[in-house]
Amino acid sequence: MAKVKFHYRGKRETGNLTIRLFHGKDIDHRLASPIASKKEYWIKKTTKNGKKVNKHLRLKDLNTYGDDILKEHINFLKRIEELILNSFQIDFNSGIPIDRKWLKSTIEKHTSILDTKGKISVATAEIQQREENLRKIEKKIYNANLLSNAIEKMFVKYKTNRNELKKYKVTHNLLLKYQGNQNHIFTIKELNQDFAHNFKNWAYLEMKYSKSYINAQLKRFRSSAVKAYEADEENVVEVSKTLRSFTMFDKVYKDKIVVTLNYDELDKIDNKEISDPRLYDAKKAILIGCETGLRYSDLNKLVDTNIKNVKGVNYWKFRTEKTDTLVQITVSNRMLYLIEKYGLPQTNYPNNGVKLNEDIKTVCALAEINESIKGKKATVIEINGKKVTRNKIDYHPKHDLITSRTFRRSFATNYYGKIDTALITAITGHSTELQLRAYINNNDESNVLRTKEQIDEFHKEREKQKNDIKLTVIPKITG
Question: Residue 2 in contact with residue 103, Cβ under 8 Å?
Answer without folding.
Answer: no
